[in-house]
Write a structure and sequence with these properties.
nine-stranded mixed β-sheet, 10 helices, 23% strand, binds pyridoxal-5'-phosphate, lyase, EC 4.1.1.17, pyridoxal phosphate, De-COase2_CS, ornithine decarboxylase
Length: 376
């Protein structure tokens, strides 16, 4: 929690549940990334948090943007981004959205299949295209697995075909999975990309760009490697495989950029037990899975909690949201402990919740309002 957020919560005590996000921290994270990977251009993954104050601050800093939909492209343009600084990074796009992006001046598009490549060729003629390949997601706490990307031999053929279709075969992308805790994941993926560069050069296609995707982690409950460790591993692998002929490098950080800039403030609605002697207390908060904490699915992302009683005696808890749906149970197996003194009415803060929370919040499931947002 940044001092600015702590002060805001103390002075304003905004109604819960709400996200309070410190936009200065986003700027610091952008600068830390640029320092760790000075040769890479940053394309902020808008999906992590598309709030206008974030997009405006990043535009001012010279950031580019990775958009998942035409709506995100519009949000970037409204924040002052140039269309040339926007990559349409979703490999699954409606024809109408491709056309609208092309008309808005967006020139860079991702694909991972022939059908998508043909859609781009027809509706965004001459666009720069990059093919997303499948890579291992081991080490990622929020893996993206097989949904996006294609095998190397297919990527090779599609990049040749891209040139034949009048498109600009620009480069290759991958995503090692979100909240990636292993630097080796990038090293393995870069080795695969380098093989493709060589194959395609032999086929007469000179690629110019590697898109290293997102994945850079945030500290939740457990320690993670620092951003400099990722920078060192990535640059080591790039020079090992490309030598002096380094291609342009793009990164698409989402979580790293905004995660630790935000705190969700919530209220304890009930503390109860399922049996008189049950050691485990159930702590029900006024935010749960449908209020935006979708990444607690499978207890994948383990947020850290702060309470007014920290430091006192604690005990085991199951933590749940407020709705009448049993999947709205956040943590049952991850050995969470909270202070014994915790009681209904207490405010509880969920740390590093600036990424992938606000946009996951349901509009009115069980009648609860979507998460309130304060950008400071
Ligand atoms: C294409 C693409 N780029 C970047 C990101 C951002 O990833 P992260 O938040 O792990 O940095 C995602 C996340 O889903 C993505 O799908």
């Amino acid at each position: 929690m940044t001092p600015k957020i702590a002060e805001y919560l103390r002075d304003h005590a905004p109604a819960t549940p709400c996200l309070v996000l410190d936009v200065d921290r986003v700027e610091q994270n952008y600068r830390r990334l640029k320092a760790a990977l000075p040769l890479a251009r940053v394309y902020y993954a808008v999906k992590a948090n598309p709030a206008a104050p974030i997009l405006q601050r990043l535009t001012g800093l010279g950031s580019s943007f990775d958009a998942a939909s035409f709506e995100e492209i519009e949000a970037c343009l409204a924040a002052g981004a140039q269309p040339g600084a926007i990559s349409y990074g979703n490999t699954v796009k409606k024809v109408s959205a491709i056309r609208a992006a092309h008309e808005a001046g967006v020139t860079m598009f991702a694909f991972d299949s022939e059908a998508e490549l043909l859609k781009i060729a027809r509706n965004a003629p001459g666009a720069r295209v990059y093919c997303r390949i499948l890579v291992k997601n081991e080490g990622a706490e929020w893996p993206l697995s097989r949904k996006f990307g294609c095998e190397l031999d297919m990527a090779r053929d599609l990049m040749v075909q891209a040139g034949e279709l009048g498109l600009d075969p620009y480069g290759i992308s991958f995503h090692v999975g979100s909240q990636q805790t292993s630097t080796a994941a990038y090293e393995g993926a870069i080795a695969r990309v380098a093989m493709l560069f060589t194959d395609l050069k032999e086929a007469g296609v000179k690629l110019r760009m590697v898109n290293l995707g997102g994945g850079y982690p945030v500290r939740y409950r457990a320690e993670v490697p620092g951003i400099d460790d990722f920078g060192t591993a990535i640059m080591g692998a790039m020079t090992q495989h490309f030598g002096n002929d380094l291609p342009e490098m793009l990164i698409e950080p989402g979580r790293f950029m905004v995660g630790d800039a935000g705190v969700v403030s919530s209220e304890v609605v009930l503390v109860s037990r399922k049996g008189k002697d049950d050691p485990v207390r159930w702590v029900y908060l006024d935010i749960g899975r449908f209020g935006g904490l979708a990444e607690t699915e499978g207890e994948a992302i383990k947020y850290a909690f702060r309470t007014p009683h920290d430091g006192g005696a604690d005990g085991p808890v199951t933590i749940a949201g407020p709705t009448c749906d049993s999947t709205d149970t956040l943590y049952e197996k991850s050995n969470y402990r909270l202070p014994m003194a915790l009681d209904c009415g207490d405010r509880v803060e969920l740390l590093s919740t600036g990424a992938y929370v606000t946009t996951y919040a349901a509009q009115g499931f069980n009648g609860f309002r979507p998460l309130a947002e304060h950008y400071i």
